[in-house]
User: Fold T-protein from Aliidiomarina sanyensis.
Amino acid sequence: MDPRLAALRDAIDAADAELVRILAKRLEISREIGQLKHELGQPLYVPSREAELIAGRRADAEHAGLPGDLIEDILRRTMRESYQRQKHQGFRRVNPDQRPIVVVGGKGALGQLFVKWFELSGYAVHVIDKDNQNELPTAVSDALLVLIAVPVAQTEDVIANLPELPSDCVLADVTSIKQKPLQAMLARHSGPVIGLHPMFGPSVPTLAKQTILVTPGRDHAASDWLIQQFAIWGVQVHSLTAEQHDKAMSMIQVMRHLSSFVYGYHLSKENPDLEQLVQLSSPIYRLELMMVGRLFAQSGELYADIIQSDQDKLSMVRRYLKRFDDVLKLLETEGREGFVREFEKVALWFGPYAEGFLRESINLLQHTSDSRS
Ligand SMILES: O=C(O)C(=O)C[C@]1(C(=O)O)C=C[C@@H](O)C=C1
Assistant:
């Protein structure tokens, strides 16, 4: 190797080693902050602090002739590491009441996640699952919160068959549909009721920046502690009615999962060489394959329940599929011209969001590309 190149690479190695030392130092400070925040009961994720810090470092970077995006990427990735470190130190427990939290379905994937986070916050958690259902009456007899985390198809039955709960016990569920479970909970329990829909899967490493949708049922004030606990975990909460929730989800979830399923179903029938498709795919296509493929690494029952949760007996599914047919007819009758005309109408409907999504996706694709070797 040319000795000049070798010397420069040595210098890069030294600079990178310094970067490692600095990152280690930052993470150690962040661990200390985590400890202090635990003591003070402050949230894991502090968006205002992050925004201020990023703006400051972007300005520093630009002043030094570096792109602001570079330091922002590094800091955001490092802050993700902060969440991980701070999570292991546990969280302040908002509700000092010593009574236990009962998680019904606590051995399921999402149930386990809530069990872990409640335990990280110092609550006593009683897990109920198929193998110890006989413990349910005793477990709920002095429960602070009963959280139903069973598959969608079983939720209503499990709620209807719950034993009597203490009158001040909060009854909540984490099902991805909200109207029916909420009605079932209100019918079964006369105390505080709240519907929750975590907008994440069980594999998320931390809850920082994750969203939980909340559909109030009865006596919302009695669930305040739970909402505050979520905030300490770094979760962002949005409140809406169960009806609004289910309507929005039929757009967000039913269509997303249906499209992915049909795409995967179609691929499997066409039976191409998947290995080759992956190799030929640039980041955007790879991302698309990932969005589809990841579905099939999860539970078919879950997605069947979500797709079937579509209100009005699959009417959204039917309308969506009819649109494929409409597009086919459009292509057959009017060809390119018809397609472009409809395309422009859709673009108008998206308005400034189209540009915004394009920008956001470019950023995302850069990250996907960076992570490939
Ligand atoms: O300042 C804090 O509260 C931190 O926990 C540190 C830190 C960071 O790594 O800079 C991490 C998480 C917060 O969202 C904000 C900032």
Notes: Residues 246-370 form one domain. The longest helix spans residues 311-350. The pocket of prephenic acid is lined by residues 30, 33, 37, 45-46, 49-50, 53, 79, 82 (CB under 6 Å).
